[in-house]
């Protein structure tokens, strides 16, 4: 079970790193080359700023200066991704405490419960990240295939795929952590019978048998010597 927990923690830790990278990335959506007139210039947007670049390698980014002018789905995605990162951070702490290879956490039963709690937290983190990326991707695809949408159309950016991959790793690792408590409860327990009274009696019997018995002295009459 120790090797399974290590694999689960590696999955969850990589998923947390992917969620952080996706949250900080600016490539949640990029301009569609099919609808762009100038192919040497492209625009890519993230949760925190909009950027533009050209074929010469020059980039210019403009952050969202106010929250109230940001669209609602972007604010929702921000909250979900921040929640995913925070849950993943606490899940990593509980996962380290609940693993059997660490010296903290108490008994094996207590560590198994902590590991199960870490698994649930990682699953929630993965669901938050998955929901955020799916919501953002749904908005991009609905605008792209809408014939009445005349503004600039975008395609799915690399950050969405990184977020989906990280969410999948967190959900898989969290599920393994949750199943580890079932494996710990199904493990057979060794029973020890108390034979204290029997051992005391047997030791007393051995001591009694080891001591030689004293034979009483024999008395003879005077006639025996005649």
| Structural class designation | alpha+beta
Name the overall outline. Answer: elongated
Rg on CA atoms, Å: 36 Å
Number of H/I helices: 5
Quote the distance from N terminus to C terminus: 91 Å
Q: In which order are the strands of the major sheet placed?
A: 4-3-2-1-5
The level of helicity is 55-70%
State the low-pLDDT regions, or none.
Answer: 188-194, 196-203
What percentage of the residues does DSSP assign to strands (E)?
Answer: 5-15%
> What letter string, H or E per element, gives the SSE order?
HEEEEHHEHH
In total, the number of strands is 5
Residue-averaged pLDDT: 79
Structure in words:
The protein is an alpha+beta fold and 226 residues long. Helices cover 58% and strands 10% of the residues. It has 5 helices and 5 strands, in the order H-E-E-E-E-H-H-E-H-H. It has helices spanning 2-24, 72-98, 108-144, 158-186, 196-210; strands at 29-31, 41-45, 49-54, 59-63, 154-156. Strands 4-3-2-1-5 form a 5-stranded antiparallel beta sheet. Strand 3 (49-54) and strand 4 (59-63) form a beta hairpin. Helix 1 (2-24) packs parallel to helix 3 and helix 2 (72-98) packs antiparallel against helix 3.
